[in-house]
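Session log. Operator J.P. requested a structure for one protein chain; no other inputs attached. Running the standard single-chain path with token output.
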Amino acid sequence: MNQLGDVELDARGMRALAHPVRLAILRRLREEGVSTASKLAPHVGASPSVTSWHLRHLAEHGLVEDAPNGSGSGRQRWWQVVGRGFRFDVGAADAEAGAALFDALERDEGDLVTAWVEETRPRLEPEWLSASSRWNTVVWVSPAELEALEEAHEAVLVPLVARRIEERPRDSRPVRILRYVLPSAAPELS
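Structure written below.
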């Protein structure tokens, strides 16, 4: 895990996560905290048995785990996410696995943005609406400068991510930060 509490995915983990049901399971568990396959199933588009299979697969790759104090009794298995998020190297040794997960996330996150625009934005209070943003900026940087930029961004987020519940401002709420860092291809010289 890194300092943001993200699970660092290897190639096997990338391939495991590159599935819409598994991405939906992780998102739902982050929203709910803990849940069972039966409770997750209607929200992830799968039957309880298929959802249970996907949960076990995610557990094999360290993305979910048994919840220590699952509410309920008996046969229901309660699950929780591991870490606050996940991170992977698009240019990893297995570039195909990185590309598959990147593509799956693009579809999933596109849906998240669309849902936010259509469902959440119209209901936001003015102060939250003005605080929300979307950037599309191009900068010219070297690979070393890009790494430094990533480290600086992470340094700003670490104290917020690590903040305990009792330290949160009373008027705080969850905010999803989606970040893309997309270098251009090398220019063709003629």
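Operator note: The CA atoms of residues 4 and 158 lie 5 Å apart.
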